[in-house]
């Protein structure tokens, strides 16, 4: 019976064949322990000299790292293993012998591993991170579908900057100027006016020359947009969504979290509602914590966000930022024109902002004023203005950065490990 490692629990005390790679091995005179992987998981294969032909045992002892093979044996329960099962090997057939595999079990530097990212992905920790990432993606689709959202795919090539910034990748679109999208939000607003509640899930690009552990040049965003929705209702959706994906990973990725040595008690504590703090209150809190130089009107950096998150030890919303440091489309607080109805969700444990969201301006006259203030003239933004001309409604939305969320849930230090092939300031290979 041919099967995969993640299905072996269905074949206890039965003989099966699995296509695998050799991740590692150790052996004594009479037993060889093979650490095997097949993409679905990892399992130990035990080859006992007395139980197999001499040629099979000789092959087992001479196997090199990352050699591919078909391995046949009986699946047995193993309470010592986190996986719970192992294979008593009866036969093996080498498919391709790997020689001089560059990533050995010894320690390697980050740059070396990044140069060999195409191979580093095979390691147990990287495998676990990718499985958690996949689970978050699956849970995202499940959550928004059951909440009545429609998946919409905004364009990647755009004729304007959604955030009104210059940190864009420029390209030619035949005889026109074009940019790689830094957000699908404006298109999602248009989609919400047609479909009510929508979400996108796609790549975004930021030409920001940053080398921090929280930044990538190319990353993936989940961007929901909701018609007939207030800022408060949007916040409730955000915390419900984050709680849902954390719970989904806890339920489905126990083995991966164990591999990553993640403190799952910290994840189990993630329960809505999340604490909230206004920007004004955050300024006061930071000054109490020793950030005496910060002044009202400054945006928060990583140390500020970390200090605020540590104070609550939970995801925390920072709301009502100054209008001057936020995007042109954010709706002002009706009681206070110098701040907007927005929020950033800061993850605990120093992982920074994972969500940014706001109520959107729905008043035509106010949006025209914003256009003037931000010099958004010409045809590029006319279609966005028309959303306020033809049946405008209160609406709100947000964007969650997938890689930062994966980093937080996995407990890894740098976002470069949370995407299969990261694009960094000085890295376009492999």
Structural notes for this entry:
This protein is α+β, with helices and mostly antiparallel strands and 430 residues long. It folds into two domains: 5-96, Nucleic acid-binding proteins (OB fold (Dihydrolipoamide Acetyltransferase, E2P), Beta Barrel); 118-417, Bira Bifunctional Protein, Domain 2 (BirA Bifunctional Protein, domain 2), CATH 3.30.930.10. It has 13 helices and 18 strands. An eight-stranded mixed sheet has the order 6-10-11-18-17-16-13-12. α4 packs across α6. The protein is elongated and about 85 Å long. The two termini are 37 Å apart. The model has no long low-confidence stretch (mean pLDDT 96). InterPro entries: Aa-tRNA-synt_II, aa-tRNA-synth_II, aa-tRNA-synth_II/BPL/LPL, Asn-tRNA-ligase, Asp/Asn-tRNA-synth_IIb, NA-bd_OB-fold, NA-bd_OB_tRNA. Homodimer. It is an enzyme of class 6 (ligase). It catalyses: tRNA(Asn) + L-asparagine + ATP = L-asparaginyl-tRNA(Asn) + AMP + diphosphate + H(+). This is Asparagine--tRNA ligase.
CATH topology tier name of the largest domain: BirA Bifunctional Protein, domain 2
Largest sheet: 8 strands, mixed
Shape summary: elongated
> What is the CATH homology-level superfamily of the largest domain?
Bira Bifunctional Protein, Domain 2
Strand content: 25-35%
Q: Which structural class should the secondary elements be placed in?
A: alpha+beta
The pLDDT mean sits at 96
Number of domains: 2
Total E-strand runs: 18
End-to-end separation in angstroms reads 37 Å
Rg from alpha-carbon coordinates: 26 Å
CATH architecture of the largest domain: 2-Layer Sandwich
Number of helices: 13
* CATH domain class of the largest domain: Alpha Beta
Placed side by side, the strands forming the largest sheet appear as 6-10-11-18-17-16-13-12
Helix-residue proportion: 25-40%
């Amino acid at each position: 019976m041919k099967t995969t490692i993640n299905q072996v629990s269905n074949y206890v005390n039965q003989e099966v064949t699995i296509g695998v790679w050799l991740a590692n091995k150790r052996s004594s005179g009479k037993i060889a322990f093979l650490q095997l992987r097949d993409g679905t998981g990892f399992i130990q294969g035990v080859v006992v000299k007395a139980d197999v032909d001499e040629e099979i045992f000789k092959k087992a002892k001479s196997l090199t790292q990352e050699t591919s093979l078909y391995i046949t044996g009986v699946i047995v329960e193993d309470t010592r293993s986190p996986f719970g099962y192992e294979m008593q090997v009866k036969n093996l057939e080498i498919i391709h012998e790997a020689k001089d595999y560059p990533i050995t079990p010894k320690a390697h530097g980050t740059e070396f591993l990044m140069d060999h990212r195409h191979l580093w992905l095979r390691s147990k920790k990287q495998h676990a991170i990718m499985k958690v990432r996949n689970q978050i993606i699956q849970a995202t689709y499940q959550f928004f579908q059951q909440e009545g959202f429609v998946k919409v795919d905004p364009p990647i090539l755009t004729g304007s900057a959604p955030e009104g910034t210059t940190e864009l990748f420029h390209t030619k679109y035949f005889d026109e100027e074009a940019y790689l999208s830094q957000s699908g939000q404006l298109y999602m607003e248009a989609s919400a006016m047609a479909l009510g509640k929508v979400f996108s899930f796609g790549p975004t690009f930021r030409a920001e020359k940053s080398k921090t552990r929280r930044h990538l040049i190319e990353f993936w965003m989940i961007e929901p947009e909701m018609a007939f929705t207030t800022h408060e209702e949007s916040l409730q959706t955000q915390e419900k969504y984050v709680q849902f994906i954390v719970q989904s990973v806890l339920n489905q990725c126990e083995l991966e979290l164990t591999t990553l040595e993640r403190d799952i008690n910290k994840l189990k504590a993630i329960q809505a509602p999340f604490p909230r703090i206004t920007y004004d209150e955050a300024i006061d809190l930071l000054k109490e914590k020793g950030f005496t130089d910060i002044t009202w009107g400054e945006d928060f950096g990583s140390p500020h966000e970390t200090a605020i998150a540590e104070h609550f030890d939970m995801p925390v919303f920072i709301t009502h930022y100054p209008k001057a440091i936020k995007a042109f489309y954010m709706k002002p607080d009706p009681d206070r024109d110098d701040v907007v109805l927005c929020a950033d969700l800061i993850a605990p444990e120093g992982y920074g902002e994972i969500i940014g969201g706001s109520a959107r301006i729905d008043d035509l006259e106010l949006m025209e004023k914003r256009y003037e203030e931000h010099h958004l003239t010409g045809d590029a933004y006319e279609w966005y203005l028309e959303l306020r001309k033809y049946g405008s409604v209160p609406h709100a939305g947000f964007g969650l950065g997938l890689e930062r969320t994966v980093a937080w849930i996995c407990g890894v230090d740098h976002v470069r490990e949370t995407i299969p092939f990261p694009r960094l300031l000085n890295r376009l290979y492999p």
